[in-house]
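User: Some background: our group keeps a shared notebook of sequences we're curious about, and every so often someone picks one and asks for a predicted structure to add to the entry. Today it's my turn. The entry only has the sequence so far, pasted here. Could you supply the structure so I can complete it?
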Amino acid sequence: TKEGFKCIILERRETPIKDSRSLGIHPISLHLFEKLSIISPFLEQGLKIYSGLARNESQEWGSINFAELKPPYNYILSIPQFQTERILEHEFLKLNPDGLIRGAEVSHFLDNRNQVNVIYNHKNTSRKITSSYIIGCDGKNSFVRKHSSIFFGGKRYPDTYIMGDFSDNTSFENKAVVFLTRKGMVECFPLPNKMRRWVVKTDHYIENPTAELLSRLVKERVDLSLKSTNCSMLSGFGVQHFIAESFIKNRIILLGDAAHVVSPIGGQGMNLGWIGAHNFTKTMVKIKNSSTNAEILLTEFEENHKKTVRKAALRAEINMKLGRKNRFPFFLKKLSIKLMMLSPLFKKTTVHLFTMHGLEKDPSKNS
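Assistant: Of course. Here's the predicted structure to add to the notebook entry:
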């Protein structure tokens, strides 16, 4: 919208989500928000995480310091997803008050090579929009992708987890902590308003976890009690990696989870969607302002973004594997973690690994 394109968002949900879901906004995304002049509300409402710890049941193995990164965004910003969506929606509607249509469900669309006709239902009435492109940002079960017959290939990992948000009764302050124990991984991340997200690896998928179960597993593995805390969210989830065979099909564009799904361990998926949206916008500006064939520029965007997605997926898989019960001796895992966090040779690489640095060129220098 800021680049002069007319955009209409068709949102199936009648109301915004109320869940915390994705939490971590990485430095690369904070740079993008600064360019869009929407960074202030995020910094006002979010909590800055400057460091992370690796521990077992009783000892600290090492730490990583995000503050060593290049300022000003030398931290990961923790903010619940419902607040993130609220901020983005507010900023978009300031620019385009009629640009969001809630309760709109797309029934079909026709790509006739020169334009796209989109048919959707809204308030029991069938309506049509004619546009230059349709952009599918409709998640891993994307209707746009399926209706376009674009193959979505990948795999499901055996890893499963439960997570919950609890009032914070720890002494970890604003630090993220990963516990690597013989009984299984436990992670916890600070949230605004003195809350903390707990994630526990499980042996199998648990569809409806309880606060009692999560509290018991945390107590058994790391000897921390959550009994005196309040729980505001619980969820069980599995892990998968899928990527669309094509992000571009004539005038159909796939972005976000509609195009690629990576492991949520490491918190890269939401940020990866924003990177794709930003780079697609830059491509559209090139198409508008240059004589280069649009198909060539869109193909270039697709190839570059697929490279970024593969890098992010590999990093997410590394994060996930660190939390597995491995067959090799436990002391080797301890040694490898210490090398990653304490050795000058690997420490900088580890910080970059956990903050999405190096996926692309420095975003603070890009247009």
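Suggested note for the entry: The mean pLDDT is 91. The longest helix spans residues 294-322.
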